[in-house]
Amino acid sequence: MKKVLFIFLFLFNLILLASCSTNDDYKITVVAPQGAPAVSVASIAVNDKDNYSFIDANNIAEQFTANEKDIIIAPVNAGAKLYKANKSTYKLGAVVTWGNLYFATQRTDILAINDLTGKKVTLFGETTINSSFAKYVLDLYNITPNYDYLGTAANTKELLATDANAIVMTAEPALTAVTNQLKQANKTVKAYSVSDLYKEFSTEEFTQAALFIKADTIKNHKKVLDNFLDKVKESCDLVSSNLEAVANNIITLGNTGLPSALPVLKTALPKCNIKFKSAADSKLAIEKTANIDLSQFGGAVPSDDFYYNK
């Protein structure tokens, strides 16, 4: 009997060790939209390219229903809305970008944000949280422009570049790229951070993009996942502590949709507002963002079970 018990315990320990080894060796797969959100993981992806995909932002929502990647970086409201509708198992692990939106113009008569009253302002993404946020912020300042809309930040960037009378909302790093382009033609761009304007009225920041985690990954690979989240925090922190290293990592990756010129990146990256905050530390800010336009979050602030806590 003792011999049988010994064999059983021996085999059990072998299975347990094998299981632990598998978890320790598990490779996290990540998909992120090209552009600013890609910055948050660029310094990890550069050494693990096979497990990272950077795709057009318009295609990121379908990644939730595909339920394949361990990690999806996406707009906070997109992940929350799909989760509430039971179309996604992904929980929010951390917020990584906090607003890279800017009002910008070449016009010489715009000397302060209040000068936008009565002017035509072209936003991008009419039915998105970006437009909702921009209009909400201008409402806080009692500014009432005449709104027009284009599809993407690339569209409003192009309008800014080609129309000296345009006032647009665009995003970094596109803004820095067009600012440099116009500077070479002796033209000046004035820009106002929408997030900075919001901070004058709110103790919480605008939550733009977050890192979402597949439920199966939480269940089966928690130790690996928690270690990965620590690395993402380090990657985000590097934007503040070693900007040139991050810029060089982005250039090496080459598929992030970000500029490939080092001077442009070094100027633009600090304006992308990259910062890692855990789900628990971001919850109040997310709820404040949701209340700007609840329709973008499925009609309600996210439930407590939407958040992943280590």
What does this structure look like?
With 310 residues, the protein is α/β, with parallel strands linked by helices. The chain has two domains: 27-99 and 206-300, D-Maltodextrin-Binding Protein, domain 2 (3-Layer(aba) Sandwich), CATH 3.40.190; 101-199, D-Maltodextrin-Binding Protein, domain 2. It has helices at residues 2-25, 36-45, 62-66, 76-84, 129-140, 153-162, 174-184, 194-199, 215-220, 222-241, 243-253, 262-268, 279-290; strands at residues 30-33, 52-55, 71-75, 91-97, 101-105, 120-124, 146-150, 167-171, 190-193, 209-213, 274-278. Helix 2 crosses helix 11, helix 7 (174-184) crosses helix 12 and helix 10 (222-241) packs across helix 11 (243-253). The longest helix has 24 residues, at 2-25. Mean pLDDT is 93; it is low at 4-23.
CATH architecture tag of the largest domain: 3-Layer(aba) Sandwich
The proportion of residues in beta strands is: 15-25%
Number of strands: 11
Total domains = 2
SS-based structural class? alpha/beta
Short description, anyone?
This protein has 310 residues and is of the alpha/beta class. It is 46% helix and 17% strand.
Which tags fit this structure?
single chain; 310 residues; alpha/beta; D-Maltodextrin-Binding Protein, domain 2; 2 domains; six-stranded mixed beta sheet; three-stranded antiparallel beta sheet; 46% helix; globular
